[in-house]
């Protein structure tokens, strides 16, 4: 991995790297915030942030205001891109924002032509942590969180890999891609029309199928334009209630789907994860 | 003035407006953060943030992380654009980033063709506060701060109008445009080659000419690529020392010219201004 830039922030370092991903079969960029506690080579725990549709590794880095609290808590934050990129990586036929580039949905595609590159699930779960734990002062104590499509990614990845993550949280997640237009389009194209293959990438389905309990926090704005048609938080709420799964869902009147919402509550998420990471 | 968007942030509102500016002879956009304390129509004090080269009203709004502390302190933040905009507004002949659009330098141009629109000094000092104090729950207790070209704008505007601002601060300001390439180009084109007209838009010259004392804080990163050739903080430091002007200049090892630097220390600036605004 190659360091592209390194900028000081709250006594830590906001770094951007590039590497050739064997999983995604392309060159990828990602960002990492290393808190000051990592400066002497001391290994710090890591929270993996998964971004939403259209984002790159930069959105959370520049807009969430997370570095202040991460620096205080001694937690690194890893910010991957949201899809494979570059020459030869196919995109949505209409270049739509909700599929293809910027919209990997954190699954391993099984359908052509997507399966040659779109393997964000394995990239996030396996390749990236292995790379970082070998090359940076970060430990294998991991949390995962994200926003919208990335909230879906965080929840499904955590529920499928409870031994690899100590806690999970999400802002405005797509809680059941099987039951919303964004998810139906993406999972249909990446995984095929047989919905049996979708179930392990659907938070509500995983909870109903008896996913193991782990610390879970979800924040949802009530002025979010995507809540009714795409996010459908009530489906998760119902699944949690009916299975007795002890997650916390918080609704916030007046807040929308933007990074202004994320910035407002990111401190709570970082403190939540830090309690479990330490 | 017309409200373009309104997003909830830290219990307050991050708003963007549009209005026809008589001073600038064009339609302008600006952003305002209204803290929760303004929600019942109670008038809150205001800090005017002046941005640097290439910026619009959005950079500080999305990247500085200022809303959290402003919401706590009950201070509104006004974020103007950095130049006139739109059809008929002339730009730099080579569309360079350091003159014309995005580079108003907070002066009233006297030279053609710039003097038909480039009057950011009067816009910031007079038109915008009058508009906001008549239409929003903000008081006439004002502070002014900014970054780079906007740090220059904040310092010169405050020193020329001590009765209108209770305090001033700057990140990485151009302290003496008369003595650096950015400033020489801009002031030469906007104000003409007679440097006598530049002096009231040059912080170092104003201090040396006996500008009245007011609370002043300046932060400068020591890894800032523009420090040696453009910002030249040492000229301000020397002028302050030699005139006995009691401002605070803080140097920060490792910090660059970016919003990561601003975000790291913005809380200090807001608390500094709040002490004087209240």
TrEMBL record, chains A, B:
Membrane spanning residue stretches: none
Catalytic site positions: 148, 224, 257
Keyword DNA-binding in record: no
Pfam families: Esterase
GO molecular function: carboxylic ester hydrolase activity; S-formylglutathione hydrolase activity
GO biological process entries: formaldehyde catabolic process
UniProt EC number: 3.1.2.12
Key words, A-Z: Hydrolase, Serine esterase
Sequence similarity: Belongs to the esterase D family.
UniProt protein name: S-formylglutathione hydrolase
Organism: Limnobacter thiooxidans
Gene (UniProt): fghA
């Amino acid at each position: 991995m190659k360091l592209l830039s390194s900028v000081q922030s709250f006594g830590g370092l906001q770094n951007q790297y590039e590497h050739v991903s064997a999983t995604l079969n392309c060159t990828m960029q990602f960002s990492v915030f290393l808190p000051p506690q990592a400066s002497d080579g001391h290994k710090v725990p890591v929270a993996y942030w998964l971004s939403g549709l259209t984002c790159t590794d930069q959105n959370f880095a520049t807009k969430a205001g997370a570095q202040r609290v991460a620096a205080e808590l001694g937690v690194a934050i890893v910010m991957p891109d949201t899809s494979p990129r570059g020459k030869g990586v196919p995109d949505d036929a209409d270049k739509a924002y909700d599929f293809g580039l910027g919209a990997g949905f954190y699954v391993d595609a099984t359908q052509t032509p997507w399966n040659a590159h779109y393997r964000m699930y394995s990239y996030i779960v396996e390749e990236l942590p292995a790379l970082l734990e070998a090359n940076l002062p970060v430990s294998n104590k991991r949390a995962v969180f994200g926003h919208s499509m990335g909230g879906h990614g965080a929840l499904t990845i955590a529920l499928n890999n409870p031994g690899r993550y100590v806690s999970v949280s999400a802002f405005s997640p797509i809680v059941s891609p099987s039951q919303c237009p964004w998810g139906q389009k993406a999972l249909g194209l990446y995984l095929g029309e047989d919905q049996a293959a979708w179930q392990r990438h659907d938070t509500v389905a995983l909870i109903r199928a008896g996913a193991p309990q782990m610390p879970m926090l979800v924040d949802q704005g009530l002025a979010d334009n995507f809540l009714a048609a795409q996010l459908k938080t009530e489906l998760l709420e119902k699944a949690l209630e009916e299975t007795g799964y002890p997650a916390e869902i918080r609704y916030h009147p007046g807040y929308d789907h933007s990074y202004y919402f994320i910035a407002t509550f990111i401190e709570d998420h970082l403190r939540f994860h830090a309690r479990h990471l330490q």
